């Protein structure tokens, strides 16, 4: 894989850390800026909303920029708003910086996905995607726990300074290593315009893949969001064991994107079918055995691995299916991931509020994967029937 891909992954690591680290900083922010904890929680909601709206919007706005310029603009903006967030004493300003950071993060990831796909051979998009998303998994393993430790030792502002500091070498390396080709089709007269890309995005196969990515990611973050109370109240671990369990999930996610990247380009359908069924069974078994420490620990790792193997493969399939929409395809893939990351925890929270206990998010995760399997199975059945009836049988990825 090109070195520039690892540079992009470093930036994604900083951005993933920023996205998830607030879960451990909200109480301190509330006290420091003299707002309620629910009000401080709006910082997380603002970031999620900015990611969902910003991914396609920023991809559309930047599609005529050279790739390197687009990536630099988004990354420098992301860096600067974290500096502003670290020094402000106004909650309103901090809230605004989270929205802008989310827009910059969404734009960067959308263009980075398109850039990664363009850097490699046409049949290697899965491996390129796995390297890029590896930055997010490493954020779960190291970045988020480090942010929590910094917040405890030196205050929540130090975590914002750390994200800005990690972004600096990514900016320098990006200037030196990422080619300055077009971010999207706009710089190429032979490539489709914005309307052409939008038309390409209306294809049923692509829409189904985006829906599957949202459902699987929703299942992942439904459980991940409530993993701490699950392992303390149900499994029986002490508070000191929570970072270890979260890091174990992160290690599984890294193993998942690595394995998924090796298989997504060659055998995507078997990976999605077998991995999807295993993922469903795993969530159900986890829900039933969450009270057993050994089983819970094993399943945290296994489910992290399966979730990200299937999820990263679906994102690679989006890039294959969106070959005629290189920029907006990455934007909509980013939006789908964040729709799942927003809706999944919300539904898990509804189940908890209804009094079903901390195992409930696991069952919600199982339900979301079951819906994904049903949708994917129906779509595959329709594709097979069309091929049998004399359709083109055109696929979006290399034959498995």
Report on this model:
With 400 residues, the protein is mainly alpha-helical. It is built from 15 helices and no strands. It has helices at residues 3-21, 26-32, 37-61, 67-87, 91-119, 125-154, 156-177, 194-200, 204-225, 227-235, 242-263, 268-289, 293-321, 326-353, 360-388. α5 crosses α14 (326-353). The two termini are 22 Å apart. Residues 183-190 and 393-400 have low confidence and may be disordered.
Detail the topology: elements first, then pairings.
Layout: H1 3-21, H2 26-32, H3 37-61, H4 67-87, H5 91-119, H6 125-154, H7 156-177, H8 194-200, H9 204-225, H10 227-235, H11 242-263, H12 268-289, H13 293-321, H14 326-353, H15 360-388
Helix pairs in contact: 1-5, 1-6, 1-7, 2-3, 3-5, 3-14, 4-5, 4-7, 5-6, 5-14, 6-7, 6-11, 6-13, 9-13, 9-14, 9-15, 10-11, 11-13, 12-13, 12-15, 13-14, 14-15
Notable features of this structure?
400 residues, mainly alpha, globular, disordered C terminus
Compact summary:
The protein is an all-alpha fold.
* Low-confidence regions: 183-190, 393-400
Mean pLDDT: 82
| Biggest β-sheet strands, sense, barrel | none
Helical run tally: 15
Shape: globular
Count of distinct strands: 0
| End-to-end Cα distance | 22 Å
Radius of gyration: 20 Å
The topology string of helices and strands comes to: HHHHHHHHHHHHHHH
DSSP strand (E) fraction? under 5%
| Class computed from helices, strands and strand pairing | mainly alpha
Q: Give helix % range.
A: over 70%
């Amino acid at each position: 894989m090109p070195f520039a891909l690892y540079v992009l992954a470093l930036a994604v690591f900083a951005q993933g850390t920023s996205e998830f680290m607030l879960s451990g900083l909200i109480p301190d922010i509330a006290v420091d800026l003299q707002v309620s904890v629910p009000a401080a929680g709006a910082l997380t909601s603002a970031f999620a909303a900015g990611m969902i709206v910003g991914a396609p919007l920023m991809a559309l706005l930047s599609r005529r920029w050279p790739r390197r310029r687009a990536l630099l603009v988004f990354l420098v903006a992301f860096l600067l708003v974290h500096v502003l967030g670290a020094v402000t004493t106004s909650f309103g300003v901090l809230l605004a910086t989270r929205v802008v950071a989310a827009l910059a993060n969404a734009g960067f990831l959308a263009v980075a996905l398109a850039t990664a796909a363009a850097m490699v051979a046409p049949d290697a998009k899965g491996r390129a995607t796995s390297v890029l998303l590896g930055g997010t998994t490493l954020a779960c393993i190291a970045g988020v726990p480090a942010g929590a430790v910094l917040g405890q030792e030196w205050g929540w502002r130090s975590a914002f300074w750390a994200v800005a500091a990690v972004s600096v070498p990514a900016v320098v390396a990006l200037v030196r290593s990422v080619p300055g080709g077009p971010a999207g089709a706009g710089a190429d007269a032979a490539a489709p315009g914005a309307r052409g890309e939008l038309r390409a995005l209306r294809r049923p196969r692509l829409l189904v893949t985006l829906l599957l990515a949202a459902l699987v990611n929703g299942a992942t973050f439904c459980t991940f969001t409530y993993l701490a109370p699950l392992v303390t109240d149900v499994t029986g671990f002490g508070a000191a064991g929570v970072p270890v369990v979260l890091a174990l999930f992160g290690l599984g996610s890294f193993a998942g994107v690595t394995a998924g990247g090796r298989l997504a380009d060659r055998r995507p359908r078997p990976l999605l079918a077998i991995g999807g069924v295993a993922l469903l069974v795993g969530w159900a078994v986890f829900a039933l055995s969450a009270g057993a420490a050994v089983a819970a620990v094993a399943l945290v790792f296994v489910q992290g691995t399966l979730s990200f193997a299937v999820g990263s493969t679906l994102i690679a399939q989006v890039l294959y299916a969106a070959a005629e929409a290189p920029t907006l395809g990455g934007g909509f893939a980013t939006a789908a991931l964040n729709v799942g990351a927003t809706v999944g925890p919300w539904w898990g929270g509804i189940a908890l509020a209804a009094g079903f206990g901390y195992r409930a998010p696991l069952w919600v995760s199982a339900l979301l994967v079951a819906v994904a399997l049903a949708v994917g199975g129906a779509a595959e059945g329709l594709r097979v029937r069309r091929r049998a009836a004399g359709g083109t049988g055109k696929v979006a990825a290399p034959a498995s």
